[in-house]
């Protein structure tokens, strides 16, 4: 391994001396294409990264965020009351608009969401602090039966999925329920 590294370094230096910068750039591109150790590795976009990318593209307040395969689905309530459904690619963080609705008919619910002291991003952090793992989804939940609102955050750790409710005023996180991933009832 060390011998190969020395030979590669020596070859790159020789290319620089003989052929100049154009050949050196071609050599680095070839190394990156073959997946050599010098090629940078890009980590997948997590929930926080997806939220940041979505809000950079469409400023507002996140209503929900969930991972579906290789994309994050993010719903953003804009400052103008619009509801925009965005797709954020987990591999690159690229944002595309899936759907946009200027008047979604949820004015009262959206007003409570926009007025909440705790954002989706803060709720994710509180949920992970209460139950370590990786955020898989966050959803604003307006429980009409109990006249309460809260953030419902799904945290995965190992084979367990835990739902954590986060109070939108205090930020207090409470574990709602856990599922070990078995569908045996």
Give the topology.
Layout: H1 2-19, H2 21-34, H3 47-57, E1 60-68, E2 71-78, E3 83-89, E4 95-101, H4 107-115, H5 120-130, E5 134-143, E6 148-157, E7 160-166, E8 173-179
Antiparallel strand pairs: 1-2, 1-5, 2-3, 3-4, 5-6, 6-7, 7-8
Helix pairs in contact: 1-2
Instruction: Going across the biggest sheet, name each strand in turn.
Output: 4-3-2-1-5-6-7-8
**Which stretches are poorly predicted, pLDDT < 50 over at least 5 residues?**
1-41
What coarse outline follows from CA principal-axis ratios? globular
| Count of separate DSSP helical elements | 5
What are its keywords?
single chain; 34% helix; globular; alpha+beta; 8-stranded antiparallel β-sheet; 185 residues; 5 helices; 8 strands
């Amino acid at each position: 391994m060390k011998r190969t590294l020395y030979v590669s370094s020596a070859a790159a230096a020789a290319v620089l001396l003989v052929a100049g910068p154009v050949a050196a750039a071609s050599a680095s591109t070839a190394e990156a294409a073959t997946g050599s150790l010098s090629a940078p590795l890009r980590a997948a976009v997590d929930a926080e990264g997806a939220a940041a990318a979505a809000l950079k593209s469409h400023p507002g307040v996140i209503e929900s965020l969930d991972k579906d395969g290789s994309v994050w689905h993010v719903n953003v309530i804009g400052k103008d009351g619009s509801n925009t459904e965005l797709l954020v690619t987990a591999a690159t963080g690229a944002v595309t608009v899936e759907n946009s609705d200027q008047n979604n008919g949820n004015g009262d619910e959206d007003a409570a969401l926009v007025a909440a002291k705790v954002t989706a991003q803060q709720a994710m952090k509180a949920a992970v602090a209460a139950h370590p793992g990786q955020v898989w989804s966050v959803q604003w939940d307006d429980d009409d039966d109990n006249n309460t609102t809260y953030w419902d955050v799904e945290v995965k750790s190992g084979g367990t999925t835990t739902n954590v409710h986060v109070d939108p005023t205090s930020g207090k996180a409470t574990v709602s329920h856990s599922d070990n991933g078995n569908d045996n009832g």
